[in-house]
TrEMBL record:
Every Peptidase M48 domain range: 118-192
Species the sequence originates in: Nonomuraea typhae
Annotated Gene3D superfamilies: Metalloproteases ('zincins'), catalytic domain
Membrane spanning stretches: 36-58, 88-109, 281-300
Family note: Belongs to the peptidase M48 family.
Cofactor(s), by name: Zn(2+)
InterPro entries named among the record's database cross-references: Beta-lactam_resp_regulator, Peptidase_M48
Cofactor note as given: Binds 1 zinc ion per subunit.
KW Isomerase (keyword) present: no
Pfam family, one: Peptidase_M48
The protein, known as: M56 family metallopeptidase
Amino acid sequence: MITAAALAALATACALGAWRFTSARWTYRAPKTAIILWQALGLAWGLATTGAMLAYAVQPYERGLLHGLIAFAQGQAPVTPWDLPHLVALVAGLTALAVLVAVTLAAGVQALRARRRHRELLALISRDDPFVPGVRVLDHPGAAAYCVPGLRSQVVISAGALKLLSDDELTAVLAHEAAHVRERHDLVLLPFGALRRLLPWSTVVCEAQSQVELLVEMAADDRARRYCSPRRLATALLRFGTAGAMPAPHGMLGSVSSANVMARVNRLVKPDPELQPHFRYGYLGLSAALLSAAAFLWVMPL
């Protein structure tokens, strides 16, 4: 009962923390740190929510959550007989855990299929260009730039974008897309997209996904700034926005979204001071503490 109560308290704390986190103002100053904290909140909430139900369900074994589940899977008899509340909690906990895993895996499979189909399409309709080596060029008049993440990642840009951007702006956009590929931002976004499909009515879940999408773009902007001027990247984003940039295909990561472009431009042109190291380490420590607490409560033999 202690484990179930502690996990329920942790789940509640994660939910309240996520709700408060949606209005945080420091995240733009340290997007990578904020992404890690969002990931920790999401994973700890999932483990704590399902764990609270399962910990109560296997209480008759008197061995704790994980050891109780192992005993149940092995068909061992509980110390005290099963009753209806424990059976209901067992079914609910296993169902919730299975749904979370299944939805995440399904989202991953859908993304992999979409990328495979898009690579096959690109092989037919795109071309190499010596002006942009290593990048696939689409002969389309619209402005588009995106990446196809994965083991066989590709960066794609349209002929319209090549005409629209100056050399420096093109370098900035390609550096941004390369950052998405290198840091595997598609894997960061995957569980948040899956959770939104599962809980589309949740304002916190929807806001969390939007926040992480913006933070991922800002993290890519930060890496691109190592290779280009921030103002060049900002002007490239504005050119894309005014030209009516084409959205990235499903499963891909693009440079521009009309919902966040101005926030990114303002951040590039008038950057706020970086988050002080002790705050950054504090948030990273909080992330580690949330995950450690959830894992410990799962294996605690009480």
